[in-house]
Design a protein that fits this description.
2 domains, 61% helix, three-stranded antiparallel sheet, Multidrug-efflux Transporter Regulator, Chain: A, Domain 2, elongated, 7 helices
């Protein structure tokens, strides 16, 4: 089943497996061997691969299947040369580095976000109280 999605769309594990020509259990196994593979997981454990995740698993597949490296060999290659260097400029800048967005926001936006956080905390506590009352 081929689905036409934009390059920036998230993909399910089944879509990525089909695109790469590997089974889904292979991708899950690679996640255990390569800490760099971090698909987003939603409720029920469903995995959604970002475009950068897809590029990363394509690179892993290339070294394992085409270049005939062992898993340990690819891990060593990643460690020595760096994943960013192997993936090239296609990778998003923030894929491997945590962002500190608070520094890049203006004071008004920071204050607005702080206010929203407070409102969410209040709503959370009100919901918890309502749930507790409904149990009684």
């Amino acid at each position: 089943m081929v689905v036409n999605k934009s390059k920036s769309a998230f993909r399910t594990i089944a879509e990525v497996a089909e695109e790469l020509g590997v089974a889904t259990h292979v991708l899950r196994f690679w996640e255990t061997k390569f800490s760099q593979i971090k698909p987003m997981k939603r409720s029920g454990g469903r995995r959604y691969y970002r475009p950068d995740d897809v590029e990363l698993v394509k690179t892993i597949k290339y070294y394992l299947y085409d270049k005939r490296y062992t898993i340990e060999g690819v891990q060593k290659l990643f460690k020595e040369k760096g994943v960013k260097n192997l993936l090239g400029e296609e990778i998003q800048k923030d894929f491997f580095e945590p962002r500190d967005t608070a520094d890049s926001l203006d004071a008004h936006t920071q204050q607005m976000l702080f206010s929203l956080q407070e409102q969410l905390r209040t709503l959370k506590s009100e919901l918890a109280e309502a749930l507790e009352k409904s149990k009684q």
